[in-house]
Write a structure and sequence with these properties.
7-stranded mixed sheet; two-stranded antiparallel sheet; 9 strands; globular
């Protein structure tokens, strides 16, 4: 297990990062609750319509106890990142119409919201899996989606992408489709170089295998120095924010290193950027800084895809 993962699993209960007073622990989220996710909870999880908001709030509290990722504080898990990806319809059709069904891995699955989205949209369940380094998210996901009776625990792999020996590593070379949402940006550039190569090892090295995902980034790529409580006082720690150009180059280096012929595509989610511009106009320039861990005119979400050819 990587050193970082060990720190995540042993973060003390009294650590400042767990505080609900940090700016990215939002009190309001209903403006983010889209009809599609409400429908998922009402139809898949059988949550009464009048209880949906309370149910989401309780799920966030439980997930925060597992680990206080800023994306949990911001309720990212209700935004259905996989559905937003421009390739979602194609991926869903491939899952439903290909025989045998492709193997699908949601890497960094968190509460397994994208796994449940696929299942609710009638993708065959046998080959759909999630993986996360923190086992507590599996239980939090079952509590949130109320589907332990329909989705066996073996569909959720506990594993560290840096490991060469754990349960996730044992699945190398077995996945037709790997989905990654809001994953890479928690690492330094050096670690992102390692992670991108490790992800490729999970993929079947054959034509048609695909990696898709969404990544928070910036028009201006660069290192971001973290400050407490996101690191320890006095700790020199940085993460790397990719642009669409540097993210494309990252996966091109990884595929070349692995000896895999692949096409890499990246593009900004400009609709999401427009939504933030509209939010600033409506709610004031400081709104975004209050509502988002990453904010500013250069902030972008990046769609990406790696197709083995």
């Amino acid at each position: 297990m990587s050193g970082e993962a060990e720190k995540w699993k042993s973060l003390p209960q009294g650590h400042l990062a767990r505080s609900t007073k940090v700016p990215w622990y939002h009190e309001e989220f209903e403006y983010k609750l889209k009809p599609g996710f409400r429908k998922l909870l009402e139809q898949w999880s059988k949550v009464p319509a009048g209880d949906v908001v309370r149910h989401i709030d309780q799920a966030r509290a439980q997930a925060w106890e597992v680990f206080p990722w800023p994306c949990i504080g911001e309720f990212w898990f209700i935004e259905q990142g996989l559905v937003r990806h421009p390739d979602y319809s194609q991926i869903l059709n491939r899952m439903k119409c290909t025989t045998p069904a492709p193997t699908f891995l949601d890497l960094g699955t968190c509460l397994g919201q994208d796994v449940r989205t696929l299942l609710h949209d009638a993708a065959p369940p046998s080959n759909i899996y999630g993986a996360d380094v923190l086992p507590g998210f599996r239980e939090a996901g079952y509590a949130f989606f109320q589907d332990r009776d329909r989705l066996d625990e073996f569909h959720f792999i506990v594993g560290d992408i840096f490991s060469d020996v754990d349960e996730l590593a044992k699945t190398r070379g077995t996945w037709d489709i790997i989905h990654i949402a809001m994953f890479l940006h928690v690492f330094s550039l050096a670690d992102q170089e390692i992670v991108s190569r490790k992800i490729l090892k999970l993929l079947k090295p054959i034509r048609g295998s695909t990696i898709i995902g969404t990544q928070t980034g910036s028009i201006d790529a660069g290192h971001v120095k973290l400050q407490p409580p996101l690191c320890e006082p006095g700790e020199d720690k940085s993460i790397y924010r990719q642009s669409k150009e540097t993210l494309k180059a990252l996966f091109e280096r990884a595929t070349e290193s692995a000896g895999i012929n692949a096409l890499v595509w990246t593009e900004y989610d400009e609709e999401e950027a427009k939504e933030r511009v509209a939010g600033r106009k409506e709610k004031g320039e400081d709104w975004e800084k209050r509502e988002r861990f990453f904010a500013g005119n250069n902030e972008r979400r990046i769609f990406f895809r790696v197709d083995v050819i």
